[in-house]
Amino acid sequence: xxxxxxxxxxxxxxxxxxxxxxxxxxxxxxxxxxxxxxxxxxxxxxxxxxxxxxxxxxxxxxxxxxxxxxxxxxxxxxxxxxxxxxxxxxxxxxxxxxxxxxxxxxxxxxxxxxxxxxxxxxxxxxxxxxxxxxxxxxxxxxxxxxxxxxxxxxxxxxxxxxxxxxxxxxxxxxxxxxxxxxxxxxxxxxxxxxxxxxxxxxxxxxxxxxxxxxxxxxxxxxxxxxxxxxxxxxxxxxxxxxxxxxxxxxxxxxx
Amino acid sequence: xxxxxxxxxxxxxxxxxxxxxxxxxxxxxxxxxxxxxxxxxxxxxxxxxxxxxxxxxxxxxxxxxxxxxxxxxxxxxxxxxxxxxxxxxxxxxxxxxxxxxxxxxxxxxxxxxxxxxxxxxxxxxxxxxxxxxxxxxxxxxxxxxxxxxxxxxxxxxxxxxxxxxxxxxxxxxxxxxxxxxxxxxxxxxxxxxxxxxxxxxxxxxxxxxxxxxxxxxxxxxxxxxxxxxxxxxxxxxxxxxxxxxxxxxxxxxxxxxxxxxxxxxx
Lengths: 255, 266
Prior knowledge:
Chain A is α/β, with parallel strands linked by helices and 255 residues long. Chain A has helices spanning 46-53, 95-101, 104-107, 115-127, 143-155, 173-189, 201-207, 228-234, 238-244; strands at residues 8-17, 20-30, 35-39, 61-66, 78-81, 161-165, 193-197, 210-215, 217-220. Chain A has a domain at 8-85 and 161-249: P-loop containing nucleotide triphosphate hydrolases (Rossmann fold), CATH 3.40.50. Chain A is globular and about 45 Å long. In chain B, α10 (199-213) packs parallel to α12 (246-264) and α11 (217-242) crosses α12 (246-264). Chain B is globular and about 55 Å long.
């Protein structure tokens, strides 16, 4: 039986692609308010696991439930920020229109946006500190600002779980720090559970409350508050040692 | 002074009506073609439609209807081949495009005595548009307008960021096929006016110019429709006055505007 209060429950999950196991025997439980950092080498299956959680890839073995539902049925309660949003910088839409696009998971086909949707969009922009940019063209914003808008787009459907796939790729380090602070704000103040996929080990370890390392298999160390020992344990997975060399290079920032 | 006495001829009135309806189609579908970067597939569909046109001739049925049929089938075929096999989309387009052209030429030749029509389909012959053609074009334009009106928001999502929208549940594959089907319909209508070889210019130039000056999608579409209508009208008048081919005149008018707008906006 799947525990009632868990928001993500994955059991014995396997994914094969072209007869190779991409994910092996994944087990994961997440609870409301969790902030999970998912790290691991390229090709370790991090993006694949997010896609399974979104219901875009069906498991070959095992089971997965999001809010006790099949993933595709739970989409309206999830927000998603893809790895890199590839778009035409001269695409003729304003920031507010982009944020409204995230409302689709609630509205469905053939529904027009009303005042409620617009209010939700303004709220989401305020949450990411971009309220004053609502009327600007999306292409006129900096990379970091655009990424905030894409977070707002994922927030506009009032998600209880936010999935982010390497959201800081291509953003300069000053903006990255701001961005992680924003995620902490969403997690602590708005109570949104977050799964953050990254290979930025240092950054992740100083912000998240749980860490899991994925390299086909998931090395996850439960719901313990993060301590240096836990980090060391999390990095105990063999490939992570090879990929990053010295696990003790991972230091936690102090407030 | 240009006098408007050409409007007393039925064929000129039909040509103008067909041209203006086509401008509406170009304005809307052309903008989607540009934003979704499906210019090459649209051109492939236009060329492949020639196979259906040839088949229509050979069997003695309406070539335009057969052209539309083969254009839609090609759109679906390209999507199927590129999603289910290891053949990449642009390779599939190349194959379908050449096959359609070859079939068309073969079947038209076997039908005998249609060399003049062959020329008309390749380079357009708006002056040969009949009253029933005009009605067909108007009906298709209205259908496509209705679809775009209903699914405006969905097509905007598809055009901006399909990867994200698919993740939150938008039926991206179905919408893309619907868009390609609408491109197929539009392209065959445009073939009547400017011919297979030049169809892609009329589909993309008005939108490309309008996009430089307008900031929102509806405004770009409106501007694009207006420009298309201007190009068709001016092209028709010049071709009538100078007695030169109408399709080429329309395209050259559009191309001149494109280069002028590029120079001015630098």
